[in-house]
Design brief:
The structure is a single chain. The chain is 45% helix and 20% strand. By secondary structure, it is α/β, with parallel strands linked by helices. It has a single domain (2-250), classed as Rossmann fold (3-Layer(aba) Sandwich). The longest helix has 23 residues, at 2-24.
Length: 251
């Protein structure tokens, strides 16, 4: 069953890759990533000289940002999509490995850091196996950093409906995650820190493909949405936020 779901996710991603890249990695989406994802994830770290696995790497735009901040980092991409792996290598100049993270990999602990941005929720075919694979890649004390949609968001019922009826998703092979349940799936990690975030700009800028916002319109709608996002992210608790950003330590 898990392999069938993985094949569904692979085929789905192959179909949407071009539009996905255009919307999630345009100038305004990258500004969103720099401020709300990359800065809180990396600013207190020195990843120069580290061996880093970019999991569900897509076409490589996150790795490019990582290398810009840490020019001596050694990065390798991993993705289920052969098209994404080819684009990753072309865009970054780094190696990429085609793999299904939900299947046993028998990896050796060679990486200091594993990074996944919006990839784990595509691995719901077998999340426990995915986490075992990630643990097996990391050296003792290695960092695992993630950004994922949170199922604790107060509009989760709406999101589930959207996943089921919107062609940009494959509802059978992806869904939002609950962080505490995810951490409890594998005893190889300890939580370092977590923050919940994501409001108007998470939806209207970063996920403009979902709301069908034309790329040409993003230069008008993005500045006010990003300003509103800064205020939104000051709200307390978890339920008002679309996503969580967590950092774990390999035991």
């Amino acid at each position: 069953m898990s392999s069938l779901l993985s094949l569904r996710q692979k085929d789905h991603y192959e179909r949407i890759l071009v539009d996905y890249d255009a919307h999630l990695f345009d100038k305004w989406s990258m500004r969103y990533r720099d401020e709300f994802i990359f800065s809180p994830m990396w600013d207190d770290l020195d990843l120069n000289g580290k061996h880093i696995a970019d999991l569900a790497c897509g076409s490589g735009f996150n790795s490019i940002s990582l290398r810009e901040r840490f020019p001596r980092a050694r990065v390798v991409g991993f993705d289920i999509s052969p098209s994404a792996c080819a684009a990753y290598q072309q865009n970054t100049g780094f190696p990429a490995r085609e793999c299904d993270l939900t299947q046993p990999m028998g990896a050796v602990p060679e990486f200091d850091v594993a990074l996944v941005i919006g990839g784990l929720h595509h691995c719901v075919a077998d999340l426990p196996q995915t986490l075992r694979n990630i643990a097996s890649m990391l050296t003792s004390g290695g960092l695992f950093m993630m950004l994922e949609p949170s199922s604790e968001f107060f509009l989760e019922t709406v999101r589930k409906f959207w996943y089921r009826h919107d062609s940009t998703f494959d509802h059978a092979s992806e869904h939002a995650l609950r962080h505490d349940e995810l951490l409890a799936m594998n005893g190889s990690f300890a939580l370092l820190d977590i923050r919940y975030f994501g409001g108007p700009a998470y939806l209207g800028v970063l996920n403009s493909i979902v709301l069908r916002i034309p790329l040409a319109s993003k230069r008008f709608v993005s500045p006010p949405l990003i300003a509103a996002e800064r205020l939104w992210n000051r709200l307390p608790g978890r339920k008002m936020f679309n996503a969580f950003l967590a950092r774990w330590r390999r035991l």
